[in-house]
Design goal:
Belongs to the anti-sigma-factor antagonist family. By secondary structure, this protein is an alpha/beta fold. Helix content is 38%, strand content 26%.
């Protein structure tokens, strides 16, 4: 028996030539994570270095979603670039904190905060780490 599943919705905006904002809505899990991975890979191919992931409308994320965020972070570190997780819901923030993802990938409260870090030339890091200038 199949369980009804809300589809994932991803909106792509380009606030900067080297930055992409992906606004994600819906559950980010094993059934939907591949769609996010395709969007991220496409933006990497187009030369984006900074990935702003607005997950404010994601009520649930499992290890599939976390793994995609971590893999993207590892890929853009070599460029250098950054990954910013924006405004996670309490349940998602808890998972990010419990698994240690939030120790590696910057979590910010707003798109404006993420863009300010991009504009300042800082590569996204955990808030406790000193910023790295590009």
């Amino acid at each position: 028996m199949s369980v009804a599943h809300d589809p994932l919705s991803i909106t792509v905006d380009l606030p900067r030539d080297d930055a992409v904002l992906l606004t994600i809505e819906g559950e980010l899990d094993i059934d939907t994570a591949t769609e996010l991975r395709h969007h991220l890979a496409n933006q990497l191919r187009h030369g984006r270095r900074h990935f702003l992931l607005d997950v404010s409308a994601v009520p649930f994320m499992d290890s599939s979603g976390m793994n995609i965020i971590l893999r993207t972070y590892q890929e853009v570190r070599r460029i250098p670039g950054g990954v910013y997780v924006i405004a996670p819901a309490p349940a998602v923030r808890r998972i990010l904190d419990l698994t240690g993802v939030s120790l590696t990938v910057a979590t910010v409260d707003s798109v404006a905060e993420a863009l300010a870090a991009v504009d300042s030339g800082q590569v996204a890091r955990h808030p406790d780490e000193p910023p790295v200038q590009e």
